[in-house]
Write a structure and sequence with these properties.
nucleotide-binding; 8 helices; 84% helix; transport; ATP binding; chloroplast; mainly alpha; single chain
């Protein structure tokens, strides 16, 4: 299962940048705005929700509760949002806003213009930082229960030279 999660992470990591940067009306200038004004608040909100859920749910229920919104979103994006991108992106409104506000607001207006791609970008970023990290540490915590037997001789070996000197 960890292989599948890392495989998805690799695909999402490569796709998110290409999707956002090459979209019509967007450029590489959008990425700092996305990371600061969209990704950071969503990551903070997600970690607050995760900390509340971790107090209430078992480890297995927490895993499924965390991973389900990601799977649901990526399924929705692939089958609904991406095919309807021309109908759901407010291109005319973004053009009017850009004309009124000027080129210095290209980043924030581009986020509005391609909002579904930006949401994909943020969910892909969260997949990498949340799902991979949380699952890794969950796995590491499970492994560490029986790991002490192998670590204890190492600790003794590392402290032995200080006793000799």
């Amino acid at each position: 299962m960890f292989f599948c999660i890392l495989f998805n992470y690799t695909i999402l990591r490569d796709t998110k940048d290409v999707l956002v940067v090459t979209a019509k009306g967007s450029s590489a200038e959008i990425i700092p705005f996305l990371k600061t004004w969209v990704n950071l608040p969503m990551a903070i909100g997600f970690m607050l929700a995760y900390s509340k859920l971790s107090d209430v749910l078992s480890r297995e229920a927490l895993f499924y509760t965390v991973i389900f919104p990601f799977i649901a979103f990526f399924g929705l994006f692939g089958f609904v949002l991406y095919p309807l991108r021309d109908a759901i992106h407010p291109t005319a409104l973004a053009d009017k806003l850009l004309a009124a506000l000027g080129p210095s607001f290209l980043g924030p207006v581009a986020i509005l213009r391609i909002w579904s791609f930006c949401l994909f970008y943020v969910m892909a970023e969260l997949w990498g930082s949340v799902v991979v990290s949380v699952l890794f540490w969950g796995f590491a915590n499970q492994v560490s229960c029986g790991f002490g037997f192998f670590v204890q001789p190492w600790n003794v070996q590392m402290s032995l030279p200080s006793l000799v000197s």
